[in-house]
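Long-time lurker, first post. I've been practising inverse folding by hand and with some scripts of my own, and I keep getting stuck on stretches where the structure tokens seem ambiguous. Below is the full token string for one chain I'm working on. Before anyone asks, I'm not after the true native sequence, just a reasonable design that respects the backbone. If someone could post their per-position residues I'd love to compare against what I wrote down in my notebook.
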């Protein structure tokens, strides 16, 4: 190693070495080095440093002179300065450093110069790899302190140490910065930017926006969220009513000036999640960039829970909402998410208790499963998600919805008058809020026009160029004001100025007929769900697999609980407690000679209900029940047949003809026939005489286009019809 201020004699020539080589341990510059390039690497960590640390940058450029002093011709000294403004924390994203590496590996570089080792790399790993490469290709490395050869063990030691120190230095610098920042944050004085609705005063303090309209718009966001309960709903409401958000840009030509911008979901989410609106100062709400992450990669976006924030000072800043309101605003969007453990938002499905039903057996929240458009089930996902034997049974949505709806309607009844007043008040308040917003918009437009006018008046008319521009601004202002006035008039026309007496009477009438309102086709399922959610927190259902008996516990908002037993629809009659009773009735009616239609009608009249919820007994269901009790096999039951009666199959065999043809004759009325009561089996009647006639009919040949003789196709008068039994 040798200082650069005294270049080796061999390189400069003419001077005599004053110490033995072994003592000086100079990295020898050989002609092989001089033949190749000398590369100066220039870097500053950040754009700010490039602007402010001009001295350091200049020193780095001047370092090129050292290469000339060491014997490189001026035209063979290359400066790589592409990495100005880039951190040396990693080699990634530094194209200049990559180019330097390429030059070394292509054996183009005899010497690499950097003002300090830290300019080349702050990462010990990158640095090791770099000087290892320089050693392989015989490239020397120089910094302000000396010249190093990567193949020399002592130089390697120094280079390694310098790399380590450079990395450590970065660590210390960052630590010092972080601690300084954290200390300032602990005092609640560190602000990078303030959210909309706030301004930073020149003193560094934070205050509410001085503009009244801006403050009103922010308050409106919180009020609407309180009312609508979801960020999406607030967003669509703002778009519908043309309400914009007050933004003061942090940079650019309009820095700090109030601008009105269209609301976006992300901005609204930021407003609702920012603790500053509740007057709290917070720092470290998101984890910082992890160490060793590549340059250009952004830190992870997820937000930490409140108890993990680094600093939280409540009641430190002027507030729009209370801390309690802030906490509830954090919880609501979480509950809106469609997850198994949350309530979700009201949707248009027919299940009214979606997200509210809890399984009484396992405590899991039941999910809605839609079979067809109007059939829903509350299913317990426990068995599926834990891969255990099926123990929690499904529950048809209709029966539970009806039960809870009836309870909710009963609960609402006494509040009817209050509701009607509330509804009127809500409508009036909403109108007032919008009216105020419009007035402020118009006031602002008027002010802009007046300002432009004053400016125009103040300018010297001789200064034509300026006067023309100001005049144009004045005209623009006037045009915008006119446009706004027209929009306001349109809005006034669309919105009723005040509720008329008739409207108020209508609202009162509607509110007093809550069941009518509830069942009205104009009330959507989402409305009904929203109403239930206002009153009911959750419904815990206990149901057993092998029984129809079920119990629902309604947990009302406010802590009251009510229990209700009900019969849930089951899939088999075996699960029904009244099955024996139903069966007894069916058999009794059957034996009394009733048909399936008659039995169904009787059961419905007596108040029995079949398996499917909301249906009544049909003849088909009765026939199925009859089959269960051994009233099956009617088709083969010889007891069905009276004297001279035949099943179609038997008579066809007797006549030696096809069954289809005989069936056809029966249909035409050429044979006496009847159907049985239950299964509608066709029974034919034919005595000896009739059989002989049918045999003759079978034998008779029919010419083309001629019909059978009438005497053969007409059956004889039947003596007596056997009454239908079974
Ligand atoms: Zn369950």
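-- Answer (accepted) --
I ran through it position by position. Result:
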């Amino acid at each position: 190693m040798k200082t650069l201020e005294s270049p080796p004699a061999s390189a400069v020539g003419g001077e005599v070495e004053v110490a033995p080589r072994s003592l000086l341990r100079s990295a020898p510059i050989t002609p092989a080095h001089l033949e190749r390039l000398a590369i100066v690497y220039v870097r500053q960590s950040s754009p700010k440093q490039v602007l402010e640390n001009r001295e350091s940058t200049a020193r780095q450029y001047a370092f090129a002179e050292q290469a000339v002093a060491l014997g490189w011709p001026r035209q063979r000294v290359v400066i790589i300065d592409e990495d100005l403004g880039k951190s040396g924390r990693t080699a990634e994203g530094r194209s200049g450093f990559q180019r330097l590496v390429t030059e070394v590996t292509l054996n183009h570089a005899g010497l690499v110069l950097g003002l300090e080792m830290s300019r080349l790399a702050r990462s010990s790993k990158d640095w090791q790899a770099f000087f290892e490469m320089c050693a392989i290709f015989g490239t020397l490395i120089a910094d302000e302190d000396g010249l190093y050869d990567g193949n020399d063990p002592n130089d390697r030691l120094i280079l390694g140490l310098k790399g380590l120190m450079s990395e450590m230095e970065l660590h210390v610098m960052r630590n010092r910065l972080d601690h300084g920042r954290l200390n300032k944050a602990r005092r609640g004085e560190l602000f990078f930017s303030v959210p909309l609705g706030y301004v930073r005063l020149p003193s560094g303090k934070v205050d509410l926006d001085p503009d009244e309209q801006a403050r009103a718009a922010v308050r409106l966001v919180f009020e609407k969220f309180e009312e609508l309960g979801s960020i999406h709903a607030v967003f669509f409401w703002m778009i519908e009513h043309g309400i914009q958000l007050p933004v003061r840009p942090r940079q650019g030509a309009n820095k700090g000036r109030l601008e009105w911008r269209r609301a976006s979901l992300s901005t609204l989410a930021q407003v609702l999640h920012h603790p500053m609106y509740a007057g709290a100062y917070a720092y470290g709400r998101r984890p910082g960039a992890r160490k060793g992450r590549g340059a250009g990669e952004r830190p992870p976006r997820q937000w930490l829970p409140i108890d993990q924030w680094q600093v939280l000072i409540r009641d430190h800043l002027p507030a729009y909402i209370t801390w309690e309101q802030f906490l509830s605003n954090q919880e609501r969007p979480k509950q809106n998410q469609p997850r198994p453990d949350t309530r979700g938002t009201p949707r248009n499905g027919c299940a009214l208790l979606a997200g509210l039903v809890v399984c009484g057996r396992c405590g899991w929240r039941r999910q809605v499963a839609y079979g067809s458009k109007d059939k829903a089930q509350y299913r317990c996902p426990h068995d599926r998600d834990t891969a255990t034997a099926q123990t929690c049974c499904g529950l048809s949505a209709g029966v539970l919805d009806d039960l809870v709806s009836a309870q909710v309607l009963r609960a609402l009844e006494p509040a009817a008058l209050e509701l009607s007043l509330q509804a009127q008040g809500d409508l009036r308040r909403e109108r007032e809020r919008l009216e105020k917003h419009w007035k402020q918009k118009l006031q602002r437009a008027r002010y802009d026009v007046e300002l432009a006018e004053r400016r125009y008046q103040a300018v010297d008319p001789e200064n034509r160029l300026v006067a023309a521009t100001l005049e144009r601004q004045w005209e623009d202002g006037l045009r915008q004001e006119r446009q706004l006035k027209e929009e306001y008039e349109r809005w006034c026309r669309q919105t009723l100025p005040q509720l008329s007496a008739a409207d108020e009477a209508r609202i009162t009438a509607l509110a007093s007929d809550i069941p009518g309102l509830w069942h009205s086709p104009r009330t959507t399922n989402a409305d009904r769900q929203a109403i239930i959610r206002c009153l009911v927190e959750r419904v815990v259902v206990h149901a057993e697999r092998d029984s129809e008996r079920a119990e629902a516990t309604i947990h009302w908002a406010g802590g009251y609980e009510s229990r209700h037993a009900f019969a849930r629809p089951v899939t088999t009659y075996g699960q029904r407690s009244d099955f024996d009773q139903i069966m007894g009735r069916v058999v009794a009616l059957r034996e009394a000679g009733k048909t399936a239609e008659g039995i169904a009608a009787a059961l419905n009249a007596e108040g029995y209900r079949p398996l499917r919820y909301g249906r009544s007994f049909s003849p088909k269901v009765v026939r199925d029940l009859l089959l269960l009790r051994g009233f099956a096999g009617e088709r083969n039951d010889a007891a069905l047949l009276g004297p001279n009666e035949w099943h179609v199959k038997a008579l066809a065999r007797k006549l030696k003809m096809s069954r289809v043809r005989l069936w056809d004759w029966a249909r035409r009325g050429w044979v006496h026939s009847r159907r049985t009561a239950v299964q509608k089996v066709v029974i034919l009647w034919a005595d000896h005489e009739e059989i002989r006639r049918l045999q003759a009919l079978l034998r008779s040949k029919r010419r083309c286009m001629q019909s059978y003789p009438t005497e053969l196709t007409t059956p004889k008068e039947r003596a007596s019809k056997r009454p239908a039994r079974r």
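A couple of notes from the structure itself: DSSP finds 28 helices and 21 strands in the chain. Confidence is low (pLDDT under 50) at residues 1-25, 291-295. Happy to go over any region you disagree with.
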